[in-house]
Design brief:
mainly alpha
Length: about 350
């Protein structure tokens, strides 16, 4: 912590806070070194003017005039036409979440098979219609998200703390390590909450997952078997994000919790795949089944087979992706433990490395 004997440490704490907000793509070392040199030059000039070393309050006043770390990082980062560097990482996260993880799967596994059924098995017409609808949906969603973030950027809502921050309350200098950004965790909680509501409503409103196909498709019994484990995993993810937000000083918690959740997801996916594909001679457990009114339709039987195969392939792909994630997260956790162990007996550096 900064003391009257060492007020210059405020500069290192300030540089550490600026580094946190700088985009990862930027050459952080050069930017931080240049900023640190400028700040120390200002302090030296002020000391020469006053004829005595500056105390913590005087150094704090210089940092206060420079601006809050978030605003300074925004000025130093790459300029964006619509979204500034402070909001740009959150903008990309929301954009990917909505476009890649919500709209694309819905169109591939729900809207696509429905269009095939409506086209009477004409794959060309169904594919063209699905791609056209997908493009329109992506365009509208991306435009809406961009507009919202552009409004936030122009109104400077994210910079409302610029005149309220106190340099003396900056966290102490510590060894550089990854921390979950506050707004990223808040977005996780936001989407996790609505995902949990969606799961709770799903048993009563099958249209939330089947859409128009609910007229001739029903959710298979296999989902009733795994509904509670899926729901518990969603609650665990929401609790993980909440604890991360409430206890940001627990640097170990996000790593351990993410790895544990990934392992549990892998086990659940493995059970689901094995349940859908039982041993030879046993009955197949489909993910969707035909409604009573559509059981005699060859066209709907074919659509149900396509949907079931698509879901099975998706689960297999998800299983492979989670395997890779578990391997990466395990390696990162071991590196974190190794760094903490090697640095346990060393005092924190007063200078940003």
């Amino acid at each position: 912590m900064s003391t009257p004997r060492n007020p210059i440490e405020l500069v290192d704490r300030y540089l550490q806070a600026v580094r946190f907000w700088l985009p990862k793509s930027l050459r952080q070392e050069d930017v931080i070194a240049e900023l640190g040199e400028d700040l120390r030059s200002q302090i030296e000039e002020k000391e020469a003017e006053l004829g005595h070393p500056l105390d913590a309050t005087e150094v704090s006043a210089i940092l206060k005039r420079c601006g809050s770390p978030m605003i300074v990082a925004a000025r130093l980062g790459p300029k964006q036409h619509l979204i500034g560097p402070t909001l740009f990482p959150i903008y990309l996260f929301v954009l990917k979440m909505v476009l890649l993880w919500i709209l694309v799967p819905v169109f591939i596994f729900i809207i696509g098979p429905v269009n095939v059924a409506k086209a009477g098995g004409d794959w060309g017409t169904a594919l063209a219609g699905t791609l056209g609808d997908l493009w329109s949906g992506l365009f509208v969603a991306a435009g809406t998200i961009t507009l919202v973030f552009a409004v936030i950027e122009r109104t400077h809502a994210h910079a409302s703390i610029a005149d309220k921050w106190d340099p003396l309350k900056l966290p102490p200098v510590r060894k550089q390590e990854r921390k979950t950004p506050l707004m990223h965790t808040a977005c996780e909680i936001f989407f996790g909450f609505f995902g949990l509501i969606w799961l709770l409503l799903l048993p009563h409103y099958s249209g939330l997952i089947l859409g128009p196909a609910r007229t001739f498709l029903r959710i298979g019994p296999i989902w009733h078997t795994f509904y509670v484990p899926i729901l518990l995993l969603a609650i665990a993810g929401l609790l993980r994000s909440g604890i991360t937000l409430a206890r940001p000083q627990w640097a170990w918690f996000p790593r351990v919790a993410e790895l544990l959740q990934a392992v549990l997801s892998l086990i659940l996916l493995n059970f689901m795949i094995n349940s859908a594909l039982p041993p030879a001679g046993a009955d197949w457990h489909p993910f969707v089944v035909l409604a009573d009114a559509a059981k005699n339709s060859a066209q709907y039987i074919r659509v149900a087979a396509i949907v079931n195969a698509s879901i099975l392939v998706s689960l297999a792909a998800a299983w492979l992706g989670v395997c890779i994630a578990v391997a990466i997260q395990t390696w990162q956790l071991l590196g974190f433990i190794r760094n903490r162990t090697s640095g346990a007996g060393q005092p924190a550096s007063l200078h940003v490395q």
